[in-house]
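User: Teach me something about this protein's shape.
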Amino acid sequence: MKHTICLPKKKGFTLIELLVVIGILALLLAITLIAINPAKQFMQANDTKRSSDVNAILNALNQYAADHKGQLPAGIGASAVSIGSSGGVDLCASLVTEYLAALPTDPTIGSANAVVGAPVTVCTQAYDTGYSISRSASNNRLTVTATSEVNPAVPIQVTR
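Assistant: First, the predicted structure itself:
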């Protein structure tokens, strides 16, 4: 009588099976990243913040005008000027703490002493918000403008 020794079958995956699964997962990940497009999502989030900031600045200016018998801070004219301490209209001292907790800034701009996108809380330091303001000569309406990241040709603009 012959005795044959049977080796037990090893259970597991072959190298080819593992490579196929990894390839499929990589393909699914690539398709998901293309569909989600994180860069575009960040740009849309920044534009949403810009829109919110523009509205906050206009609301604060309207409150300022209501408290000062219709007068606005000096420097707002018919042509668009940047809202900042150097070369633009300085709104920080007029608005911060009484009408705004901090002057909002563009999420991609930072001053020399601040984090990118950090709001301006100290009005004695140089700052640039990245936004601009103008006042209509015909009806005294204010327009605050920001540059869109998603579509720079179409500015984010609110007029009141």
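Now, about its shape. The mean pLDDT is 90. The helical segments are 15-36, 38-67, 92-95. If you'd like, I can walk through any region in more detail.
User: That's plenty for now, thanks!
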